[in-house]
Amino acid sequence: MTEQMVAERGDQFSGPRGSLNRGRLEFAQGAARLTVQGEGIPELFRARFDRPAPSVSLHEGAVTVRYPRFSLRGWLRPWVRRGGQVTLNKDVSWDLSIQGGVAHLDADLRDLQLEALDVRQGASRLDLRLPRPSGVVPVRIGGGASHVRIRRPAGTPARLHISRGVADLTFDKQEFGAVGGRLRLESPRRAPPRAATRSRSPVAPRTYKSPPSSRPCNQEVATA
After folding, report:
1. CA distances in angstroms from 150 to 70, 126, 161, listed in the order given
2. 134-153: b or e for each residue (b if 16 or more CB lie within 10 Å)?
3. Quick check: 216 and 146 in contact, CB under 8 A?
4. Spatial contact of 94 and 112, defined as CB atoms under 8 Å apart
5. What's the rounded Cα separation, in Å, for the pair 188 and 157?
6. Hey, which of 20, 113, 147, 160 has its CA 20 to 30 A from 216?
7. 3-state class (DSSP) for residue 75
8. How far apart are CA 224 and CA 172, in angstroms?
9. Overall pTM > 0.90
10. Best CA proximity match to 215, nearest among 163, 147, 149
11. In whole angstroms, what is the distance from residue 196 CA to residue 101 CA?
């Protein structure tokens, strides 16, 4: 399938949904001052970015946003505003990926069908509000993290795995100062809903799983 046309009006972008039921949003070279949310829109996505606007492409449901390469200092200069707002179709299930690091991400994903969220090469000042999952949903933050807040629906189990130490962590009502090395935490489980599965193994409860991250600090994982 060839690349689909993305409607572009200055700093605004959108793409058709067609018959798609799955989508992927990827920032290929980092992002900053970014807002992501889900809504009932006819398009697959809508986006608006401050100038200089990135390139945006759409191929088989995969939306790729690519900024020119900037240093982290270049991203965050106070006199340069580089940010954006992305709205995703809430009737589509989504994988979200940010490669190259992110700073100041406000993601209200409560209206989305989230399949996975992956942040690579560092993260600073993240506020994530997660939807109620229909299965195990991996949330990965790698390459170091600072000031991360993750909120999930009340009653949703979660597992947290930190691989290289943590400082100032709050997991539900548990508080930790500084912990070196690996740390695994898990919220109390409730009986999982009945579900049909092809596997002979027990059905996993609806849960969020956070795989290994690198040297995070100032973390909070809580119920909404």
Report:
1. 27, 8, 14
2. eeebebbbbebbbbbebbbe
3. yes
4. yes
5. 7
6. 113
7. helix
8. 10
9. no
10. 163
11. 38
**Three-state SS at 15:** strand
Q: Is the dihedral of CA 186, 25, 89, 104 positive or negative?
A: positive
Could you read off the pLDDT of 18-41 as tens digits, one per residue?
Answer: 999 999 999 999 999 999 999 999
- Pick from 121, 120, 153: which is nearest to 137 by CA? 153
170 by Cβ neighbours in 10 Å (0-12 / 13-18 / 19+) ranks as middle
The phi and psi torsions of 169 (rounded to 5 degrees) equal: -105, 135
> For strand 216-223 and strand 145-152, is the pairing parallel, antiparallel, or unpaired?
parallel
50 burial (CB, 10 Å; 0-12 / 13-18 / 19+) is: middle
Question: Which of 166, 162, 163, 156 lies closest to 187, judged by CA?
Answer: 156
Altogether, the residues listed in the chain come to a count of 224
